[in-house]
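Q: My labmate handed me this sequence with no annotations at all. I'd like to see what the chain might look like in three dimensions before we decide whether it's worth expressing. Could you predict it?
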Amino acid sequence: MAGSKEIRIKIKSVQNTRKITKAMEMVAASKMRKAQERMRAARPYGEKIRRVASHLAQAHPEYKHPFLVARDSVKNVGVVVVTSDKGLCGGLNSNLLRQVTNAMKQWEQQGAKIRAVALGNKGLGFLHRIHVPVVAQAVQLGDKPHLETLIGPIKVLLDQYRNGEVDAVYLAYNRFINTMKQQTTVEQILPLPSDRVNGESKQEAAAWDYIYEPDPQVVIDELLLRYVEALIYQAVAENIASEQSARMVAMKAASDNAGSVINELQLIYNKSRQAAITKELSEIVGGAAAV
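A: Here is what I predict for the chain of 291 residues:
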């Protein structure tokens, strides 16, 4: 059994660790509320522009944007990987990157080459480790996503799609469900999937059409650019809310585990101290009897 001094030092060390994890839990809880409010505020716009873009894909304007036209064969796939910049958030990033890895294996089996855009340090490091070409990146996104920071890297991939260098674009991120649950998501964003019509049948969607002013090309070009920007912004907002929730839960579990370790060490320390006292008493009694 370790000595009393060593046990006291270990108890003090675990107590200091618990202070850190408790502070991180409280900070994450505060940031989580703000991130959830920001994410929920962006959801209605994102869902509405998805619906409009879905109707547009089913409509029949004179002008067909490249984002709406599916390629005959998919030889090059671009994927936008949205992760956190920091760790200590449980299995949030590892679960997402595992799903991204499985998706990449499927694309490679179909004969497609892969290139990526990394949003977040964890995803960037992962893509470098598995030797996936990273055409653009954005790190240190902070606690609040800024669209002007995200547009640059995404534009690189969109330009490659327009030029025919990429045949399909996918988006990978953590979708926020609730504080205890985050859903890993890998979805196609380009070309616009024809089945992405929320709550409407295809027959109803086919009846949709619009009056375009000044002309279809100007309206559709601007709309679909906003569509992609909205998807990326929403994905980053969802991922930040998921990150703070996962970090709060992970730090709470760490604080609880530290409390359990402290209780166990305290029990061992008390037993060690009691044994030392009993030994001293036995020596005193033995010495008195000898006299």
